[in-house]
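> @MW can you paste both from yesterday?
MW: sure, first one:
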Amino acid sequence: MNEKVFLAGAAGAIGTALTPLLVEFGYEVYGTTRRLDRTDAIRAAGAHSVLVDIFDRETLANTIECIQPSIVIHQLTDLPPALAPNLMSEAVVRNARIRSEGTANLVSAARAAGCKHVVAQSIAWAYAPGVAPYDESHPLDIDAQGARAVTVVGVAALERWVLSMNEAGGVGTVLRYGNLYGPCTGRDAPEGASPLHVEAAAWAALLAVQHPMGCPFNIAEDGAQVTSEKAKRALGWRPDMRLAEPHTAQSRYAAR
């Protein structure tokens, strides 16, 4: 296969699970981080390490232009260790900036480099109040107030930028992830209204790469406040998907 994938946020919780999965399925992965101390881990997972800041628009554009990826995956967040409650208010603002300004930089750079497919991480708890479970046609909570408004505005900006790929002759896929738990997430067990294991989230990203569709997908466990039936039907995703031992993920996938 040897398709090039530019994975923004390769050292994050989902990126850490996704990188070796993409590598095992034959993709040439260029994984980004803005921290030098995380580059070795990215290389150890089988990817090329790329040191770049999403807010450095010029360097980001030049980097993607040089790599010429066929797929760009956006898995960037900026969360405190163990989701420390006393640090979350600042994290909300940082994440909103990543979702708005950072996504604008990433999508613009991808389009300028001729990349036709962008897959991006969104969230499943930005829907307006209504009758649950929410499907992807339910509106976002644009009338939210306070910290929630900061989050929803950022999410709406991210999704507009990603879905604009569809209007430019490409494919933009939005993955509305539930509340993550599992390795590197700060949660060991399911929590929140729409729980999701981080490894199942990584599988959803891989499947979105393999099945390009220009639309949003809810990605959460059964019984959540959202329904993920669309992802199950269109992508073949399941909430119980986990990483396998080395060299067995493809055989497990083939047996589905």
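MW: second:
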Amino acid sequence: MQHILVVDDDVEITTLLTEYLARFGYAAHAAGDALSMRAQMAAHPIGLVVLDVMLPGTDGITLARELRERSRVPIIMLTARANPYDCVLGLEMGADDYMGKPFEPRELVARIQTVLRRVAGDTAPARQGPDEVVRFDGWTLHSIERHLVSPQGVVVPLSNAEFRLLCTFLRMPRRVFSRDQLMEQARGRAMDAFERSIDLLVSRLRSKLSDDPRSPSMIRTVRGAGYLFNVQSLQGQVGWPH
């Protein structure tokens, strides 16, 4: 039985969700703040956290970062703020999906099931494992440490969202991706409601790759179509990021 932790200071929401999740065979637990969340994490084998952004004391973004620093437990963020910057920030802190309030409980269950299936697939043995180091156009991507090394030897750290977006580009270089395709490939359904969020991520990744935003040569904008990763040389196999 999967244990799900719902972290929200609205008692009505936590009561509704824990009862609803139980109908689908989940062992659901509730917490209203950072302290009770940590207590529940210590008391139960939590398999996924549904985490509200707006919490008393320590906010959900900070808690997502804290969780990701010491655990790979999947996180679905909840927020009433339908803002693309909040979406990107939550994803960069390590969230696996993102839902705005109000929401349908059945849709949240569907998201939970999707994320859990994806995590199970990530941990399944692959027929051919990816390379730990991938080189492209003088850059080196270290997939385990999740950082880049520039042609000048400078280490460039990547956020979770930037790493997944770069992996998506590297798996199929020189192909035009629409925004919808990038959102689906890089983050599943996490950014469906925030079309501009993929533009923000591309801008951040360009900056990390020292790609001039006024005249980008590596991540090119194809007007009316999307983006193209114009890599000239590629050595190594890029795996699907966990």
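> thanks! The longest helix spans residues 105-123.
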